[in-house]
Amino acid sequence: MSEFTVTSAAYDFKADLNPLVMICGTVDGVPACASVFYQTIQCANEFGGVQAVQNLIAISLVNSFVKEPDHPISVATGGRYLDLPQYPRGKFLPAPAPGNGNILSIAMVPKWTQDITVDSKTNQRVLDNQAWVESLKPRRRR
Questions:
Q1: Residue 109 to residue 55: CA distance in whole angstroms
Q2: 27 lies in some domain
Q3: Would 84 be classed as within a structural domain?
Q4: Is 141 part of a structural domain of the chain?
């Protein structure tokens, strides 16, 4: 299990309705930063609340270590980028214009722990809340 924290989640508006949000925090105490589109975070929040946002941020922060092959976090993922979860597209809410400090409050999630290992046989990520995310996916009616 790895421990994740988010210390900042800020974006630069520049008239872009879907700006990149720079999320900085730590993975097991090691500083990490990742960029995630504003709308992706909004969709995760709309789909599954704080836990879905945490899952998205965890994978994004872990992926920031892939270019460091000897780092223990990179070793845990087999040196491969993990796929970001795909959430249903929600109602598009453009990023608020400057004036609120450009901090994305829904990305300022509390500290959490999560497994980040990769199954060596299937090369798929194994996350302790992956089954939860899968269970929320809409089912087709028969």
A1: 11
A2: yes
A3: yes
A4: no
Residue 13's domain spans which residues? 2-136
Residue by residue, DSSP assigns 40-109 as HHHHHHHHHHHHHHHHHHHHHHHHTTTT-TTSHHHHHTTT-PPPPPP-------PPPPTTSTTB-GGG-P
Q: How far apart are CA 136 and CA 2, in angstroms?
A: 23
- Is 142 a member of any domain? no
Tokens of 128: 């302790």
Dihedral angle computed from the Cα positions of residues 12, 15, 16 and 17, in that order, rounded to the nearest 10 degrees: 110
Judge whether residue 72 has pLDDT over 60.
Answer: yes
pLDDT of 36 higher than 70? yes
User: Looking at the DSSP assignment, which residues form a beta bridge with residue 24?
Assistant: 8, 33
Q: What is the pLDDT of residues 2-14, one digit of tens each?
A: 899 999 999 877 7
Count structural domains, the chain.
1
CB atoms closer than 10 angstroms to residue 17: 11
pLDDT (tens digit per residue) in 114-139:
876 655 555 455 444 444 445 445 54
